[in-house]
Design a protein that fits this description.
2 copies of one chain form a homodimer. The radius of gyration of chain A is 20 Å and the shape is globular. Chain A contains 17 helices and 2 strands. In chain A, strands 1-2 form a two-stranded antiparallel sheet. Chain A has one domain: Farnesyl Diphosphate Synthase (Orthogonal Bundle), CATH 1.10.600.10. Chain A is mostly helical. The longest helix of chain A has 31 residues. At the A-B interface, helix 2, helix 4, helix 6 and helix 8 of A face helix 2, helix 4, helix 6 and helix 8 of B. Chains A, B: InterPro entries: Isoprenoid_synthase_dom_sf, Polyprenyl_synt, Polyprenyl_synt_CS. Chains A, B: Belongs to the FPP/GGPP synthase family.
C-alpha cells in the first residue's frame, strides 16, 4: 500500500467514526457549558488511529463497516473523555494546538463534560444489542469493560508515582504502566473488537502481543515528541512532561545514569511541586537527558518494539486479508516514521 | 408502619445494596491509589435512600429483591461517583464527617477514582442482560442513560451559574436545575426502575410528578441543613454553600429581597472568587438570609412540596401493595421530619 492510500484510508475511517460520533451526541441544552464544548472537542479530534484500527481489523476479517462504526465511535469518544480528564490531572495547558478544555471552561465544568462523554460512550455500546445481537454485543461490552479498567488502572499507577514522588520507577515499571494506560485501549482492544465483530467470537488473545509492542512504541515516541517536537507540530506545550514530573522511559533511564550530586539534584527536582519547578531546572533535566543519551536510548527501544510488532503481525492477523490488512501493516511503518 | 420498622427496612435495603456493590467492585491493584479508596468510600456510604427506594418500588409492585439488587447497587455506585466529582467541583472539604477524597488523595487521583466508579456502575447494569433478559435490561439501561444525562446537565447548569456569576437565578430556575441534578436520579428513576423490573414494562411516567416534588423538597432541606445544621450531624463544612456561591432557593429569595447597597454588596460577594471570600461577608449573607426570612421561606416551600408529593403518591403507586408500599409512604414523613 502506498503512503497516500494509507493516509486516505486513515482519514476516511477517522472521519467516519467522527461523523458517527457527532450524529449520536446530544445537541440540546445546556449548550454553552456542556454539549457545545463536547461537540467542539470531538469535532477537533485527532487522526482517529484507534477507530481506524478497529474498523480496519473488522473489515480485514470480513466484517461490515456499519457493524464496526458504533463501537469505533464509542472508542473515540471514550478516548476524548480520557484526554479531557487527563489534561486536568496533568495540569496541561494546550491540546491539539488550542487551550485545554479546563483552561477554557474551568476545571469543574471540564470534569463534567468528560463525565458526560464517558456516559455517552457507554450508551453508544448499548446500541450494539440491536445491531450485533445480544451475544456479540455482550462480548463487545466485556472488551470495553476491560479496556476502561486497564486504562484507569494505568492512570492510577502514573498519577500515584507523581503523587508519591516515586524515585525508583524503572523501565519495566514504565512498560507495565504503558501497557495498562495506553496499549489496551489504543491498540490491543481495537484489533480485538474489530475481529470480534467480524467473526462473532474466536481467539482474541492473539492480538495482545502485537498491540502491546505497537502501543509501547507509540507511547515512547509520544513522550519523546513532548521533549523534542516543535510545539506547533505536537499541539501540546513542549517540556510539559518535565514540568509535570511525568515518569517516562527517558526519566527512568536518566535516574539510573546519574549519581552523586546530579542524582540528588534530580531527586530534588522531582520532589518540587509542579507550580514551583523552575525553567532552569527543567532545562537542566532536559540537557542531562541529552548528555546521557536518554532520548537516543528511548528511540532505540521504540524502534525495537516496532520491529517486535512487525514480527508479531502475521500471527495476530492470520486469516485477515485485503487492503485493510495492508492498512494495518502500513500503520507499523507510520509509527516508525512518525517524527521523533 | 412504625418509625422503627421503617428505619430497619431502610438499613436493610441500604445494607443489601452496599453489600452487592462491594462484592462486585474490583479488589486488585493498584490498591492504594484506586481500588482501596473506592471500596472505602463505598463502605462509608450514606443511608442508601436511592437503592432502598428502588428495591421497595420493585417489591411493592410484586418484583423480586434479587432482580433489583444489581440496579440498586449500580445506582448507589453512580451516586458515589457523582459525590466524588461534585466535591472536587465545589472545592468541598469534608464529606460524611471525614475529609473529601480529593483532600486525601489529591485531585488527579480522585478524578480517576470517580471515573472508575462510573465505569463500574455501567458495568453492573450489563449483568441485567442475563438476569432480566435483553428486553428489560435494555429498558433499564435507557433509564440509567436518562438519569445520568439529566444529572450531568443539571450539574452543568449549576456550575455554569457559578462560573458566569449569574445574578438572576430565580426560584423557577432553581427548581428546574434541581429537577435535573437531583430529582431524576435520586427519586424519579429509582421508582421507575423498581417498577420496570417488577412489571417488565408499563407506564413509568406516573412516577415523575411524585419524584420531582419529593426530590425538590429533599434538595431544599439539604441546602437548608448546610446553613443551619451542625457540622457534626451534616458531615460537611457548614456554610460551605455560601463560600462556594451555590445558587440555592435561599439565595434566590435573598437576591429578590435586597435592594440598593445591600443588593450591590451581595453582587460583589458573588463576584468574589471562592478562595477570596471573607468569613465576615459569608456571615453577613447568612444574617441577611435570616433577616429576610429566606430560610423560613425555603422551609415552607419544602413542606408544600412534600404535601404535593403526598397527594401524588396514591396515583404514582396505584397497584402497589404491602409493607414496601408503606415504606415509601413513610419515606415522605421521614423527609418532613428530617432535621432542618
Amino acid at each position: 500500500m502506498e503512503r497516500a492510500a494509507f493516509l486516505d484510508r486513515l482519514a476516511e475511517y477517522g472521519g467516519l467514526a467522527r461523523k458517527t460520533l457527532l450524529a449520536r451526541l446530544p445537541e440540546g441544552e445546556p449548550a454553552r457549558h456542556l454539549y457545545q464544548p463536547m461537540r467542539d472537542f470531538c469535532a477537533r479530534s485527532g487522526k482517529g488511529i484507534r477507530p481506524a484500527l478497529l474498523i480496519a481489523s473488522c473489515r480485514a476479517f470480513g466484517g461490515a463497516l456499519n457493524d464496526a462504526l458504533p463501537s469505533a465511535a464509542a472508542l473515540e469518544l471514550l478516548h476524548n473523555a480520557f484526554l479531557i480528564h487527563d489534561d486536568i490531572q496533568d495540569q496541561s495547558e494546550t491540546r491539539r494546538g488550542v487551550p485545554c478544555l479546563h483552561a477554557e471552561l474551568g476545571v469543574p465544568l471540564a470534569i463534567n463534560v468528560g463525565d458526560a462523554m464517558m456516559a455517552n460512550a457507554f450508551r453508544m455500546l448499548w446500541d450494539n444489542i440491536a445491531l450485533l445481537g445480544p451475544g456479540t454485543a455482550a462480548r463487545v461490552l466485556d472488551e470495553f469493560d476491560h479496556l476502561t479498567s486497564e486504562s484507569l488502572e494505568g492512570q492510577a499507577l502514573e498519577l500515584g508515582w507523581i503523587r508519591d514522588n516515586a524515585l525508583d520507577v524503572g523501565p519495566a515499571d514504565y512498560l507495565r504502566m504503558t501497557l495498562k494506560k495506553t496499549c489496551w485501549y489504543s491498540f490491543i482492544h481495537p484489533c480485538r473488537i474489530g475481529a470480534l465483530i467480524a467473526r462473532g467470537g474466536g481467539d482474541l488473545d492473539s492480538f495482545n502481543e502485537f498491540g502491546f509492542l505497537l502501543g509501547a512504541a507509540f507511547q515512547i515516541r509520544d513522550d519523546i515528541l513532548n521533549l523534542v517536537g516543535s510545539e506547533d507540530r505536537y499541539g501540546k506545550e513542549i517540556l510539559g512532561d518535565l514540568y509535570e514530573g511525568k515518569r517516562t522511559l527517558m526519566l527512568a533511564r536518566l535516574a539510573g545514569a546519574l549519581d552523586g550530586r546530579d542524582h540528588a539534584r534530580l531527586t530534588r527536582f522531582l520532589a518540587t511541586p509542579r507550580g514551583a519547578r523552575k525553567e532552569a531546572e527543567v532545562v537542566w533535566v532536559f540537557d542531562a537527558m541529552k548528555r546521557h543519551d536518554c532520548i537516543a536510548y528511548a528511540r532505540t527501544a521504540a524502534d525495537r518494539l516496532v520491529e517486535g510488532a512487525k514480527a508479531a503481525f502475521p500471527t495476530a492477523f492470520a486469516g485477515a486479508a485485503g487492503e485493510d490488512r495492508d492498512f494495518i501493516a502500513h500503520l507499523l511503518d507510520y509509527m516508525v516514521e512518525r517524527e521523533a
